[in-house]
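[step 3/7] inverse_fold.run input=structure_tokens len=460
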């Protein structure tokens, strides 16, 4: 597409409008109560503020990234709204990174379209865009790592290589599945133009050094915060996720679950314009790479594949898991939209641009009734899970207990503990672990049978 001022301004206005709409969606959902996972992160962060130590006084099977985020927010305000607003700021930053990545690698039009598509899609209630879960944070760190590494002049300096490795490590500290996103980064490192094997090896070594240094720093801090906590920290930050959690499903189970998700959550019906744009973007990226003999520009395809591997790691396909794949999908969708607009004749460009608006407007419009529900959205999405009642139950416990009392909850509802500002009776905030088994009855029909067993502490 010729880069006329009119066209550039049109794409820029689209990006700005999308960011504004996404922020309005998030403001409408700012009072949606914490769900169970968020309640766990909030409780760990509150206890940390109260003098406790993560992985010593309280144990959750997550790396410390989310605990750090919640703890930082709690320096300002220990409320649900504060976390939601901080998340909104994070998504604005990630949107800006998407714009910079698209512009640096392709064009300003693609950067604007990618930013718009990401801002709207990541805010969708269908993907739990209101919730401060790990995937939405690791997406930002991985985008930043690619932006740092994708230098326009093709040279990877020591600073860039180490910084990219540190950013990927930060993503892993939010959720280990971010390791899958190292695949497109490795591709970029190995396809640096006009450099020899020694330079590529040096760049990879710098990346590995930045990654290892960041992980080592975090491990050192949390492992030695309490006596004998090294084993506990490593087991619950990474060991559980790489063994018990990701190994609960077979490959066939994962395929069945994914089909089940597509059918029951109306993903195809809602997001078909985005899916079409992603496919067109993949085709356009390959054709562009072949025409320019620069396979470096095909990295968004590999990023999409690797992110989907991360989404599929556990085999559960919870809605917020798809936040990991939204950035590469947005970049591919932008490439597809701008590519079609460039292919069209001059008199058809406005029609093509209007069709492109459908990619942004239609999925977002389907989400408006959900976002407008406010706190009631929790009931719509989570059914009878006691998330709406969390703050009221917390106040009840707070008023009827002393600060030194401990509370035992039959079940796993750590949001009660956070709102009550009371310690759990156990170090383990989740009292049970369930492994879902899937039995395929017939095409399009599934049944989940759950075999639950009590979680036994690994250490006394």
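[step 3/7] decode complete -> sequence:
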């Amino acid at each position: 597409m010729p880069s006329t001022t009119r066209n550039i301004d049109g794409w820029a206005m689209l990006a700005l409008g999308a960011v504004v709409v996404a922020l309005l969606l998030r403001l409408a959902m700012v009072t949606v109560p914490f769900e169970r996972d968020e309640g766990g992160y909030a409780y760990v962060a509150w206890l940390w503020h109260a003098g406790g130590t993560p992985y010593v006084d309280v144990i959750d099977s997550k790396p410390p990234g989310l605990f750090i985020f919640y703890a930082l927010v709690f320096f300002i305000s220990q409320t649900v709204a504060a976390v939601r607003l901080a998340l909104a700021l994070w998504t604005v930053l990630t949107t800006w990174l998407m714009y910079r990545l698209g512009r640096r690698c392709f064009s300003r039009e693609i950067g604007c379209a990618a930013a718009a598509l990401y801002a709207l899609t990541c805010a969708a209630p269908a993907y739990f865009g209101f919730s401060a879960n790990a995937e939405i944070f690791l997406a930002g760190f991985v985008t930043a790592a690619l932006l740092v590494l994708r230098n326009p002049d093709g040279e990877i300096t020591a600073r860039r290589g180490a910084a990219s490795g540190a950013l990927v490590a930060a993503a892993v500290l939010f959720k280990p599945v971010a390791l899958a996103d190292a695949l497109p980064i490795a591709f970029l490192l190995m396809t640096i133009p006009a450099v020899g094997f020694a330079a590529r090896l040096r760049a990879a070594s710098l990346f590995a050094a930045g990654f290892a240094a960041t992980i080592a720093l975090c491990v050192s801090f949390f492992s030695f915060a309490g006596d004998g906590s090294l084993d506990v920290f490593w087991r619950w930050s990474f060991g559980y996720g790489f063994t018990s959690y990701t190994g609960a499903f077979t490959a066939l189970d994962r395929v069945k679950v994914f089909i089940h998700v597509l059918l029951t959550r109306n993903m195809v019906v809602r997001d078909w314009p985005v899916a079409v744009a992603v496919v067109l973007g993949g085709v356009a990226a390959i054709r562009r790479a072949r025409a320019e003999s620069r396979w470096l520009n095909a990295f968004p395809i590999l990023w999409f594949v690797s992110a989907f591997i991360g989404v599929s790691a556990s085999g559960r396909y919870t809605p917020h898991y798809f936040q990991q794949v939204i950035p590469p999908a947005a970049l591919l969708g932008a490439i597809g939209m701008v590519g079609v607009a460039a292919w069209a004749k001059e008199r058809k460009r406005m029609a093509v641009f209007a069709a492109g608006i459908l990619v942004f407007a239609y999925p977002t419009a389907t989400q408006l009734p959900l976002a407008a529900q406010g706190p009631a959205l929790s009931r719509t999405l989570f059914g009878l899970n006691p998330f709406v009642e969390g703050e009221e139950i917390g106040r009840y416990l707070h008023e009827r207990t002393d600060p030194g009392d401990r509370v035992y909850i039959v079940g796993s509802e750590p949001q009660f503990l956070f709102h009550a500002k009371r310690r759990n009776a156990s170090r383990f905030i989740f009292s049970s672990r369930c492994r879902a088994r899937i039995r395929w009855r017939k095409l399009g029909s599934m049944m989940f049978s759950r075999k639950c067993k009590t979680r036994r502490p690994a250490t006394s």
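[step 4/7] annotate
The longest strand covers residues 432-442.
The radius of gyration is 23 Å.
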